[in-house]
Amino acid sequence: MESPSRGGVFSEGTDSRVEQFAESISFDRRLYRHDIRGSKAHAQMLASEGLISNDEAEQICTALDEIEKQLDADELPLRIELEDIHMHIEQALIERLGDVGRKLHTGRSRNDQVSTDFRMWVRDALDDIDRLLLELQQAFLSRCDADADVILPAYTHLQRAQPVLAPHYWLAYIEKFERDRQRIKDCRKRVNQCSLGVAAVAGTSIAIDRNATAKSLDFEGMTANSLDTSSDRDFVLESAFVLGVIATHLSGWAEEWILWSTVEFGFIKSPHAFCTGSSIMPQKVNPDVLELTRGKSARVLGNLQTLMVLVKGLPLAYNRDLQEDKPPLFDSFDTIQACLQLAAPLVAGAELQRERISASIEEGYLDATSLMEFMIRKGMPQRRAHHLVGAIVGEAMRRRVTLSDLPLEVMQEHAPELDASVREVLGSKQAVEAFVSEGSTSPKRVAQQVAIWKERLS
User: What residue stretches are annotated with the Fumarate lyase N-terminal domain (predicted)?
Assistant: First the structure.
C-alpha cells in the first residue's frame, strides 16, 4: 500500500524496527479532530484560490467528515507504518478519493500541518484549564460568607505570625489562580497564531491564501517567518511553564491543607469522599487527593524541564526531535486537568473545625505586632516599640498568659506610656479589627474584596 510520506527516491522499505521507533500515532491520535478541521479549511482555501475545484473540495470535506466519525467510534485501523495521525487521515482520504485526496497536501507540509494542529489543540486545552480554574476560584469564594467570622493564624516560616480572617485566606488563593488565568490568556495570544501555509521551511511557490485559512480556523493572526515557524516550539514551552506555575499553586494549597488536617493542627476536615483509609490502621482518614495533587506537581515541573532540554540545542529549522514535544505537554495538561477537577469540590466540601481553631487562636501571641503598631500610633519610634513589645511578650511567656491577660501594670513596667486603651488591640479579634491598609485582613477591606470577586466571577 502506498504511503504518502515515502517518495520514489527510496530504494527499499522502512525497517520495521525504525517504524516502531519513529511512530507517534500512540500519542498524537488525540489531534485528529484538529487535523481534520485544519485540512477542511485548507481544502476550502485551495478551492477559493482555484487550485482545486469546488467539487473536489466538497468531496474532500465530506470524506474527512466520514473519517472523523470513524475515529470518534474507534473504527479506523491505526498502523505503525503510517507513523502519525496526520498520515493516517491522509491515507484514509486517498483510499476513498484517489487523486482527489492526493491534492489536499498542495501548498503545505507535515511541518506546518503538525504545528497548526498542535496549536489548535493547545488553544482548546488552555481554555479548558481556564474554565476549571474559574470553578476553583468560585469554590473558594463560596466559602467566604459562611466563614466570615472565623479567625485563623497566618504563618511565616511556618510559625504563627498574625491573625487573619478565613475569607482573607480564601481570597489569597483566588488571587493566585487569577494570575494563572491571566498567564493563560497571555500565553494563548502567542499560541493562537496560524502556522499553516509556511510549508516545510521556506514557504511555497503556490499562490495560497494563508490569511483566509487563519481566519477560518479562528486564529488571531499568522506566523511571519517560515524558518522560525518550522522550528518554533515556544508556544509549547510557555504553555508548559504556565501549567508548572499552576502546579506549584495547587501543591502549596494541598500541603497547607494536609497540615491543617492533622491532629496537631486540627483546622480542617476534608470530605470523606476525597480521602482513603489504611489497610492496617482502622482509625486513619488519609488526605490522598491532596497528597497526590502535591505529588503530581512534580510530573508537571519535570515535563517543563524535559521540553526545555529538548529544544535547547536544535538548529533551524524543523528537526524530528520535535516529535517528542507532545507526550510531556499532553501529560501536563492531563495532570493539571485531573487535579483541578477534584480541587473545586474538595474546597467546597471541606469543613473548618471552628471549635479547635477558636480554642487555639490566642496561642502564639498573634497580637504582638498590633501592640507594636499601637505604640507607633502613639508616637513611639518603631525600633523602640519593637524592642519593648518583645520584652512584654517575654514576660507573658514566663507567666504563661496571653497579652490580653497580662496586667496593665506589668506592661507599664516595660512601657510606661501604655494605658487602658491598649486593650483595644489585644486579642486576635481586636487585632484583626485594627487593620486598615488596602490588601489587609481588615474586615472592611475583606468584605470589599469579596464583593469585587463576586462580581468578577459571576
Answer: 10-302
Total tally of structural domains belonging to the chain = 3
The structure's pTM equals 0.95
**Exposure of 283 by Cβ count < 10 A (0-12 exposed, 13-18 middle, 19+ buried)?**
exposed
Determine whether 157 is an active site residue: yes
Let me know if 278 is a catalytic residue.
yes
pLDDT grade for 1, boundaries at 50, 70 and 90? very low
Catalytic annotation, pick one of 26, 53, 278, 358: 278
Is the model's pLDDT at 7 over the cut of 80? no
Q: Which of 106, 137, 155 is the last residue of a domain?
A: 106
294 is written with which cell numbers? 502535591
Annotated active-site residue in 157, 205, 421, 458: 157
Beta-strand pair 268-269/221-222:
unpaired
Containing domain of residue 394, as a range? Answer: 362-456
Half-sphere exposure of 151 toward its Cβ, with a 13 Å CA cutoff? 23
List all residues 6 or more positions away from 382 whose beta carbon is below 8 Å from its beta carbon: 372, 376
